[in-house]
Amino acid sequence: QVRLVESGGGLVHPGGSLRLSCAVSGSIFRINAMGWYRQAPGRQRELVGAVISGGSTNYADSVKGRFTISSDNAKNTVHLQMNSLKPEDTAVYYCNARIERLLSSNEYEYWGQGTQVTVSS
């Protein structure tokens, strides 16, 4: 089975930094895209940022200039460096991956279990 495991969440003061990581394992042929979403209490899940084949990235306006997505293709891992964190960034952060399985031309979407990020003084 394909699995996505997030790590790096925690409690941080406003203005601080956190680095989230998402490692993908399983029967993978190709990862077409990976991204981070977040969901705050009472809110819908929203895109934070994503990276696709070729290195193109996309960020939500609210995090541009503060968050950076990077990928380590050899390790099937994506990171989210979060700087200048604000209380509004508090949410559960979910890793997402669009993956082609071995011996299949179909694309599948997978989600991690989520990791809590809390920004509070």
What percentage of amino acids are in beta strands? over 45%
Termini separation: 40 Å
Low-confidence stretches: none
Main β-sheet: number of strands, strand sense, barrel status?
A: 7 strands, mixed
Helix content: under 10%
The radius of gyration is 14 Å
The tally of strands reads 11
Count the DSSP helices: 0
- H/E topology pattern: EEEEEEEEEEE
Sum up the overall morphology in one term: elongated
The structural class is mainly beta
Mean pLDDT, all residues: 94
Task: For the structure shown, list the relevant keywords.
121 residues; mainly beta; seven-stranded mixed beta sheet; four-stranded antiparallel beta sheet; 11 strands; 0% helix; elongated
Describe this structure in words.
This protein has 121 residues and is mainly beta. 0% of the residues lie in helices and 59% in strands. It has no helices and eleven strands. The strands form two sheets. Strands 2, 4, 5, 6, 9, 10 and 11 form a seven-stranded mixed beta sheet that branches. The protein is elongated.
